[in-house]
Recover the amino acids of this structure.
């Protein structure tokens, strides 16, 4: 084209060069390393946190006894402080998990994801989102069942918080409550949340919400069954329902090098783990099993009509359950706080626990951003006709193998 | 029975292949850029906002007739001394503009008095701001290629507090400015 | 209890066990502003009614007070995902009236940009169909990476990324810039590799196949009786492709096969488009190889274009079916009447019958697999 003397030499910065990309990646990695390495050294130097807690607890009890105070204060501290720590953890963890999911999803999709808030790769993005959600107007649709609509998020999120009580966040002593029926408690209480989803679906006076709520109920109740049965071999092998004990059973090594984690138990361990992983993804309503939300079909499913903090509570419940599923998987299949090899025992047990949990969370996220969504009826078929027979067969094989070893 | 296990194996393999693709992409560099900080370079033929040069225009109204959405209007007076038309004003409504280059193609002057630039960040808070008005007696900003559009943008940027360099760049060289 | 306002008249009454579900015009997967009213029994669709016209701009009427040259830019906005082919179909119709000779180089350039735009349109289909099924990632690969490359090529060629105004009456508006042909060759090679990636990630993904195989079957007879054209028809086993059957331009020079699948389900409609990308790549290879030097514009008056009185109909194989333009000229500056045969609109008509008996999730899959563009449906 013939152009005037005004050939455009303007304010357009050149496109990013390969060199600038490389520089940015290297600088990101350096910042990350500069932040993480001192933290890592610090955790090694500090060691297990519970010994400090017990020292402090002993000191306070002594002090109270010296002052002539009632003796229940000591036991109250022993219960209240770990519960507070875990409650705080569960409310802070979604902030990190959401950011992590955003970043992994972005990089899987060759995008950058949040980059602004917090200078380094948008680390404070979720906090900004949280503030936005706090400030949002709370809308209740006309004709909604106001009480059901109001209570639903609470019903959904409360069991998620309670579930963490018996989970050992490291070695066996780091569980807030050492329940003897820990596994049963976790599985039982986590099933309660579906009532909240059903209430949200009914209370919103929205057809999409109702379809979503019904789908959620059917799905969560169905997938509970293969999930529980897939955990039976672990319980049979460990001979206990207490999560700490199951974890302790997995310390040590098979044949000197293979960590004695249940996932490495021949055949049974892997099948159990895969069934547990699949049904856990379904339990947490994530793609490929997110039919309850099903953005392209039901707009947002059961939380279509929620906004602000009520919506955030559903969100928190979802991520708390995802973290719960990962934590349970880490404890039951990956040895919880046990190190990969006994020579790595100097790293504190909670670092191992959280490392394994976040590895499983990465698996969850990776699967979510790879697969399409199943259809409702095929989802049910998959549960009842595939997962259930396989998990039952797995229990039978496990029983047979354990019987052989007992001989 | 064998067919069943074959099917299970095939499905599992298909699923794992998909995971492989996404894992590979996890480590590839991003295709997106951070827009206000980084901008992609545009081709020389890019059809951005129109610029106009009243000192070249011969008021022939070819562009007015060529425009499909009637977004160009002008008024001229006949100059009895030079037997030519003198431009009084020239207006382009960017709210209507289709960015189709038909006006630039029919423009008979050399160089073209109306032509596309690479400016694409046209957003205004007022509908009237979309109408750009050129007059021969209003001086063009010196050293600028974009006529008054660009001058206006610079003014807007200054109001918004963006650090504008003396060369007319609104691209902040250091991201801290945002 | 559950009743719809005006749609009870369109469908038989809603019984006690059924409910009406209003999908759209604001819904994530209606690809624009289509409104579908579904009658549901549980999750199973027992009736469907379409509501169109939310995007009506009166393009055909606007043509009557635009000159012939000016109307080209409105065809860009008709089916905005393959604007080059829209430009081309309109140009063909006017050239038929003018009986003008098109230079060879312009013909080659038209084929190149047409096939590139067909690939771009199908890439968008692959991406959005993935989203409809629930997979978000393929969208970013197909739409965000490969399609952007095509748009970059178009930007270098004609200065616009969506509304090109490139294929003009009598030829094309710009010649290729330096190095453009090499870039296009590189893109074609890149595209072939990417198809393998899409296959791994989406096409042969077991969940995806489970969601699409055997869903929304469009029988051959039904497709023909509804006047369905394009990839939707070829997926039902009818090998109709205007590039083969009634070659326009210089398509008779190229060696290629029309992509045909037999079953007519959603997966076949997807795979036909995937195969067409491969076919377009091979056409592009030949066209880029054979690109001759010469003029790019035929002898057409620049201003005051007055085709002789009469009528003409020209059609070509668009990305969604047969794109036809019918012009009645009275010898004036603008068409007396202009009609666009919009393939999306005609393909959409069969949806009412197709949706019955499928689930809500399948509705989204079927709607996505038909690949409508609401800009073209409502015009």
């Amino acid at each position: 084209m013939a152009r005037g003397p005004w050939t455009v030499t303007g304010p357009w910065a050149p496109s990013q060069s390969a060199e600038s990309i490389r520089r940015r990646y290297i600088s990101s990695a350096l910042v990350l390393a500069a932040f993480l390495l001192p933290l890592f050294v610090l955790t090694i130097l500090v060691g297990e946190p519970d010994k400090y807690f017990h020292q402090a607890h002993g000191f306070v009890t002594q002090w109270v006894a010296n002052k002539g105070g009632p003796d229940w204060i000591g036991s109250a501290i022993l219960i209240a402080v770990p519960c507070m720590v875990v409650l705080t953890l569960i409310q802070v963890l979604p902030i990190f998990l959401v950011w992590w999911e955003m970043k992994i999803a972005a990089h899987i999709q060759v995008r950058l994801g949040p980059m602004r808030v917090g200078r380094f790769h948008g680390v404070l993005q979720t906090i900004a989102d949280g503030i936005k959600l706090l400030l949002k107007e709370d809308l209740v649709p006309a004709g909604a069942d106001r009480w059901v609509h109001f209570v639903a998020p609470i019903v959904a999120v409360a069991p998620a918080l309670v579930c963490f009580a018996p989970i050992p966040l490291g070695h066996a002593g780091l569980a807030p409550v050492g329940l003897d029926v820990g596994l049963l408690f976790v599985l039982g209480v986590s099933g309660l949340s579906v009532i909240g989803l059903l209430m949200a679906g009914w209370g919103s006076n929205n057809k999409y919400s109702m379809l979503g709520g019904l789908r959620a109920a059917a799905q969560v109740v169905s997938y509970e069954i293969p999930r529980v049965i897939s955990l039976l071999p672990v319980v049979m092998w460990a001979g206990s329902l207490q999560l700490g004990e199951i974890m302790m059973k997995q310390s040590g090594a098979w044949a000197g090098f293979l960590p004695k984690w249940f996932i490495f138990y021949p055949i049974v361990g892997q099948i159990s783990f895969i069934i547990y992983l699949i049904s856990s993804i379904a339990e947490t309503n994530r793609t490929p099993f997110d039919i309850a939300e099903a953005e392209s079909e039901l707009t947002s499913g059961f939380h279509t009509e929620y906004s602000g903090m009520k919506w955030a509570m559903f969100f928190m419940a979802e991520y708390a359950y995802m973290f719960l599923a990962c934590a349970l998987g880490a404890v039951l299949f990956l040895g919880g706080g046990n190190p990969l090899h006994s020579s790595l025992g100097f790293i504190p047990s909670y670092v191992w626990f959280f490392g394994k949990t976040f590895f499983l969370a990465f698996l969850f996220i990776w699967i979510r951003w790879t697969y399409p969504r199943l259809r409702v009826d095929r989802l049910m078929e998959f549960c009842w006709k595939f997962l259930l027979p396989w998990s039952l067969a797995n229990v039978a094989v496990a029983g047979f193998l354990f019987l052989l070893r007992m001989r | 029975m064998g067919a069943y296990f074959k099917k299970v194996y095939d499905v599992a393999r298909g699923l794992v292949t998909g995971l492989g693709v996404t894992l590979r992409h996890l480590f590839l560099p991003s295709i997106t850029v951070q827009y206000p900080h980084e901008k992609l370079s545009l081709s020389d033929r890019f059809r951005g906002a129109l610029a106009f040069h009243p000192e070249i225009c011969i008021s022939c109204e070819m562009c007015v007739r060529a425009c499909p959405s009637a977004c160009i209007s002008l008024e001229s007076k006949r100059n009895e001394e030079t037997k030519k038309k003198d431009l009084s004003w020239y207006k382009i409504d960017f709210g209507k503009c289709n960015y189709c280059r038909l006006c630039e193609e029919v423009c008979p002057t050399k160089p073209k008095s109306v032509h596309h630039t690479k400016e694409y960040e046209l957003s205004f808070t007022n509908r009237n701001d979309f109408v750009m008005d050129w007059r021969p007696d209003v001086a063009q900003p010196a050293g600028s290629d974009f006529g008054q559009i660009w001058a206006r943008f610079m003014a807007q940027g200054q109001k918004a507090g963006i650090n504008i360099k003396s060369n007319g760049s609104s691209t902040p060289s250091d991201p801290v400015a945002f | 209890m559950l009743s719809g306002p005006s749609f009870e008249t369109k469908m038989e009454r809603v019984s006690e066990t059924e409910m009406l579900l209003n999908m759209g015009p604001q819904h994530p997967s209606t690809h624009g502003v289509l409104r579908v009213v579904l009658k549901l029994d549980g999750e199973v669709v027992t009736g469907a009614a379409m509501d169109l016209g939310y995007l009506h701009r009166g393009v055909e009427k606007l043509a009557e007070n635009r000159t012939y040259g000016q109307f080209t830019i409105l065809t860009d906005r008709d089916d905005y995902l393959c604007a080059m082919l829209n430009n081309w179909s309109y140009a063909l119709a006017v050239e038929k009236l003018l009986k003008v000779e098109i230079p060879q180089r312009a013909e080659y350039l038209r084929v190149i940009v047409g096939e590139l735009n067909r690939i771009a349109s199908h890439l968008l289909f692959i991406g959005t169909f993935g989203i409809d099924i629930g997979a978000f990632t393929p969208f970013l690969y197909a739409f965000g990476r490969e399609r952007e490359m095509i748009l970059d090529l178009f930007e270098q060629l004609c200065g616009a990324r969506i509304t090109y105004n490139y294929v003009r009456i009598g030829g094309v508006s710009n010649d290729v810039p330096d190095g453009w042909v090499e870039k296009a060759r590189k893109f074609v090679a890149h595209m072939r590799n990417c198809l393998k990636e899409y296959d791994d990630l989406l096409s042969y993904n077991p969940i995806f196949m489970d969601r699409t195989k055997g869903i929304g079957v469009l029988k051959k007879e039904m497709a023909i009786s509804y006047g369905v054209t394009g990839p939707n028809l070829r997926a039902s086993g009818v090998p109709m492709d205007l590039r083969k059957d009634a070659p326009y331009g210089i398509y008779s020079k190229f060696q290629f096969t029309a992509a045909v699948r037999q079953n007519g389900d959603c997966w076949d409609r997807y795979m036909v488009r995937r195969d067409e990308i491969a076919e377009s790549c091979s056409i592009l290879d030949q066209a880029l190889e054979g690109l001759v030097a010469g003029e790019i514009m035929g002898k057409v008056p620049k201003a005051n274009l007055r085709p002789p009185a009469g009528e003409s109909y020209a059609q070509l194989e668009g990305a969604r079916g047969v794109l036809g333009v019918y012009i009645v000229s009275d010898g004036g500056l603008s068409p007396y009447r202009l009609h666009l045969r919009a393939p999306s609109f005609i393909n959409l008509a069969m949806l009412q019958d197709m949706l019955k008996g499928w689930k809500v999730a399948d509705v989204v899959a079927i709607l996505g697999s038909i690949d409508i563009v609401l800009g073209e449906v409502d015009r």
The interface with chain C takes residues 10-11, 14-15, 17-18, 20-22, 25, 31-32, 42-47, 62, 65-68, 98-102, 105-106, 116 of chain B (CB under 8 Å). Chain B is about 30% helix and 15% strand. The two ends of chain B are 64 Å apart (CA to CA).
